[in-house]
Amino acid sequence: MGPLLDELHNQFFTRPPVPTADFSGKTIIVTGANVGLGKEAVKHFVKLHAAKVIIAVRSTSKGEAAKAEIERDSKVATNVIDVWPLDYSNYASCKQFAAKVATLDRVDAVVLNAGITTEKFELFEDNESQVTVNVISTVLLALLVLPALRTSAANNRGTTPIISIVGSGVHAYTKFPERKEPGILAACNDPKKARMSDRYQVTKLMSLFAVRSMAEKTANAKPYVIINTVNPGLCYTDLTRSLTGSTGNAMKVMRAAMAWSAEEGSRTLVHATTVGPESHGVFISGSKIPNNGQSKFVTSPEGISTQKKLWAEISEKLEKIQPGITTEL
């Protein structure tokens, strides 16, 4: 089946299995965890006995409210969940967050779940907002926390930490015209050419390419850290709340017809932190490996060429944000 049929089959005829893994003694970080998939994933992690779960949120007041709700519903001790500030729209915030991660005794999994979709063109830092949040800051965070996960692996023998980036099956639904421009990131920054109805899909394809690049460059690194990307499917969440007009109406119809609940979708996030080296660089969809639902373009000759071009641009940008960061790969 192609990506669309895979997605439809998953949504209509399957449900992700309820997680049963034991996270005893482990420290888990989930970004964008005060609502939706992130919050539901945190509920699973604490029920599965994680020693520490860090909720990373832009609004700490909302994070504290989510923490209180989870503690009440899950009857978990008040010292299990911590709330840390993190704003993907601000590179300094990403650096501050990563510096705090480096102080932890251990880090077993980082779920980079935060993301945005919008029809409004605006800049965060110096890129279009969705490019900044869904791509640049996501990759920046992955590389900034990578040393902490390697240290954790070295200090806790027999463990293999995981960085899991939340992707989307919609990466297969864009033709990604920006790839043909001399500079992909520059093309995404042009408000006159921006197709905002397509931008979220574009950023999720860019994110997938970035995951594959990071995985390729860390494949033989020691201590080993798994980097994968997970498709949680179409779920009832607040992600699309800013969409209006025909796009917003179409999303409402699709969600009514086949969306999973946020809890069901969150199971895929938890699953992605329990898999082994076979998931390194893999697009996990429907809690299945390998590459169920991945666009064929990704591994085509043109896709491979596009990935190299994009990674060169992302690397150059990251080096300007944090000199030396790509040497961690």
From TrEMBL:
One of its GO terms (molecular function) is oxidoreductase activity. The lineage of its organism: Eukaryota, Fungi, Dikarya, Ascomycota, Pezizomycotina. InterPro entries: NAD(P)-bd_dom_sf, SDR_fam. It holds the Pfam family adh_short. The keyword Secreted does not apply. It comes from Letharia columbiana. The keyword Metal-binding does not apply. Transmembrane segments: none annotated. This is Uncharacterized protein. Keywords: Oxidoreductase.
